[in-house]
Design goal:
The protein is an alpha/beta fold and 219 residues long. The chain has three domains: 14-113, NAD(P)-binding Rossmann-like Domain (Rossmann fold); 114-147, Double Stranded RNA Binding Domain (2-Layer Sandwich); 150-216, no CATH class. The protein has nine helices and seven strands, in the order βαβαββαβββαααααα. It has helices spanning 22-33, 47-52, 83-95, 133-146, 150-166, 176-183, 187-192, 196-207, 213-216, and strands spanning 14-20, 37-45, 58-61, 75-78, 99-102, 115-119, 122-126. Strands 3-2-1-4-5 form a five-stranded parallel sheet, sandwiched between helices. Helix 1 (22-33) links the parallel strand 1 and strand 2. It is elongated and about 65 Å long.
Length: 219
């Protein structure tokens, strides 16, 4: 395996996207969703990006890329259809030890972007190490059918229970059997079907008094 799997914190990080077309717009949207501060450099910038710049932490530079644009950024994404320019961006990033992804060109990237299934804080990533984006897409669609929105709710519930249990005196190791019972139950199906009373009954059976679904989801 060539790539080291990692989930990267880009909250308030300065990121650069070169290219303001359809691909560049999608890359910008993903970066903003994760809390990055984004600069776009491109002679052509999509209407969607122009509208986003009015409210989001997004700076637009409607001109060709310059090497100086990459100075001081944490991460750069090349999203142009100019092969020579994409390779220049890659070289500039490599010379400065900057994280760099060139769309659809894994051979000139020092990281690649996986296919993603996201349900709130639950993030499932699929990578074929750049060998077959089509297979990654197929697997993503399969997983999207298998893991519905209820899994995001389930994770939120597990997080709230964990926080409440950690405030108690006993050791965290004692929590493992409790979580195993919850996860191995039909809890996800109960959440999907909005069976609040059944959820509360299960929580009481496993955790005891003081754990109600409605209250935990408000934490």
């Amino acid at each position: 395996m060539r790539y080291y799997p990692i989930h990267l914190d880009i909250q308030n990080r300065s990121c650069l996207v070169v290219g303001g077309g359809g691909v560049g717009t999608r890359k910008v949207m993903a970066l903003l969703k994760c809390g990055a501060r984004v600069t776009v450099v491109s002679p052509v910038i999509s209407e969607r990006l122009q509208n986003l710049a009015e409210t989001a932490p997004l700076t637009l530079k409607p001109r060709p890329y310059r090497t100086a644009d990459i100075e001081g950024v944490f991460l750069v994404i090349g999203a142009t259809d100019d092969e020579a320019l994409n390779r220049q961006i890659s070289r500039d990033a490599e010379n400065r030890n900057i994280l760099c992804n060139i769309a659809d060109r894994p051979e000139v990237c020092n990281f690649i972007l996986p296919s993603i299934v996201q349900r709130k804080d639950l993030v499932i990533t699929i990578s074929t190490s750049g060998q077959s984006p089509a297979l990654a897409k197929k697997m993503r669609k399969t997983l999207e059918g298998q893991f519905g929105d209820e899994y995001g709710e389930l994770l939120q519930l597990m997080g709230a229970i964990r926080k409440k249990l950690l405030r108690q005196a006993h050791e965290p190791e004692a929590h493992k059997p409790l979580f195993e019972q919850l996860i191995n139950s039909d809890l996800s199906a109960m959440i999907r079907e909005s069976k609040t009373e059944a959820i509360n009954a299960l929580l009481f059976k496993i955790l005891g008094d003081g754990y109600r679904y409605e209250e935990l989801m408000e934490l």
